[in-house]
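Two records follow; treat each independently.
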Amino acid sequence: MRLTRLHIHHLRNLNQVSLNPHSHFNIFWGENGSGKTSLLEAIHLLGVGRSFRSRQIQSIIMHEHNALSCFAEIKDDFGFATSMGIEKNRQAHVTCKIGGEPCERLSQFAGMLPLQLITPETFKLLQLGAEERRRFLDWGVFHVEPSFSDLCQRYQRLLKQRNAALKLASRWSSLASWERELCQIGEKLTHFREAHIASLIPFVEKARQTLLPQQSIGFEYEKGWGRDLSLEEALQQSLAQDKRWGYTSVGPHRAEVAVTLGNFAAHQVLSRGQQKLLICALYLAQAQRLEATLGKKCIFLVDDLASELDKANRERLLGLLAAQGNQVFLTAVDALGWQEVCDQFGGEMFHVEQGLVLEANDSGLVGG
């Protein structure tokens, strides 16, 4: 998948920007606050339906405007073009379109443009709780299993109902009515996740050998209840505890993706730079697995690549991105060294200054 045209209106300090991105590397460089990360944010809105920087729509829409909009043309590897767009206003109303037609389900919209996001915040994948790693895993399952999104939503509704019943002794007799379907869906979700992570491991290992050749990393799925139990058996065993605590303590909502080095969590052993390389290996593996399964390529959004990485490691990572044939949108604070990357791998440089975007090769104004 390639993004061939991009139009942005009233997003942060980007008033009106129109770009024809390069099919390989797109380097946005400029001072902090110039708007280069906002360009990545616009693409993220198109791919996910939300910002990666803020959940408050008021802070994203340009001052004195009621709404922002992002439109794009995307092409698959066969050259088939599709248009897509999203508009959000200050009243939190969202309009999504695919091919000019309204898209009522955000999950359908999000499936159009698979993205991988690498920012200085990506350390939370290793350092924060299991929810971050479940989200990473579920991204991959969502893009290859059409029913996964609906199953997740149904599971969450059933879980909410069971938890509400657990909080009131007068409703304990109704627990069984929620549990049968909860178990059925929970087992299906777990099956999808286990199959995905088993297929992902060879791609993780391949990327690790290039980015972290001296480290042997463990990568294992823990399903959220006893290994030798069914979910129904696990719920029965934990029932007394769940009644005391008022919530469901076992199930796929408690699953973990353990990323380890020896007997320790990887983030406790690896340096910051090594952690970033490991996270990049995980995202590259997701992209490769998606392409191997569906023939779709990911788009990579990389904010501040130089953070935590020395020149040699940056070159290894850029080489992997280029070898996979991914389209990459990357930010940098200056132009130093990036023209050589564009010359080597194919790409375009854009200078971003106070919300204006200039093609660096000829200083022609692209948008503002």
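The next record belongs to a different protein.
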Amino acid sequence: MMTILIAPDSFKGSLTSVEVARALATGWHRGRPQDEILLCPLADGGEGTLAAIEAAGGWTRQHATVRDPNGRKIRAAWLRSADGTRAAIEMAEASGLSRVTPADRDAITATSIGTGDLIRAALDAGVTSIVLGIGGSATTDGGSGLLNGLGAATVRDAGTCDLADLDPRLTAIHLRVACDVSNPLLGPTGAAAVYGPQKGATPTDVTDLDRRLERFADALDAAAGRRERDTPGAGAAGGVGYALLSIQDRFASFALRPGIDLVIDATDFAARLARADLVITGEGRIDAQTGFGKTALGVALRATTAGVPCIAVGGGVEPEGIAALAEVGAIAVPVVERPQSVEQAMAAGTTPIERCGERLARLIDLTKSTD
């Protein structure tokens, strides 16, 4: 009998990490029904982070009325720990691209105010520690909306910023921000240039947005007494990273960390890893980007450090991804069973992942029988 830890990310655009983990477990049980399986779905701080953390247990889903990227009132979820002291917040819940249809996207006016609303809801509940995932945003407002949601008076386009009325309860909050990008706020590698087109920005919009962000940054720098526009991660979430870096002195403690690190901490991954004989992780594509700190690599590194073998499954697997995982002692295995388009693979649901899990179990069974 073995203990198998299944800790994948989502297959983005297709399946959540919870669905992927359950599918792998179903398949593994077919091949080796005697094994104990530990599920630990993961995420990188973007959409799906709440679901991954909630699945680990010990959290209660809460709801708050917030404003979406277009300023409309919506209901958004956040998580509160069983002891009431911690919160997990996903920016995508309030200010994400998934909150607006392609026809409703407005790269110029989209606001992050709803994320500020969510943080205030957590403050109202009395938490003292917040994990905030800022992936998947629809906004490029430099975090001016978020600051307004927290009580500040900012007008991005007028280049004004007054932090006098920023919520004083922030001084009791330990904030950890899940951020997987190192972009600065401005310029050719900044928030507008790199991520604006994904949010509906035209080339003209990108130029306009960068100009507006610079004007706002001049005002926030002066108000906060800091200059964070060039700090790695300032360009995250359309500049929300910059706004939070700028007011970091207002928190009891503050850290900008890779999303996978924070989610692993929140899901009690380490305790599960200590019990495991084998780790199975995975993500939609195992490719060159895997080597830059995506979930599969983060899990593989921890498994190797703990002396536990690791297999990473991918909807698509490329040589660069195989090499990146091999460097840390993990093996990449494709889910795909025949030549097909990405669209066909995404439409196949969980069945191929279940079959992949079963194949892996039978392969392990074969190696055990030949020992």
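Discussion point: The radius of gyration is 21 Å. How would you locate this feature using only the token line?
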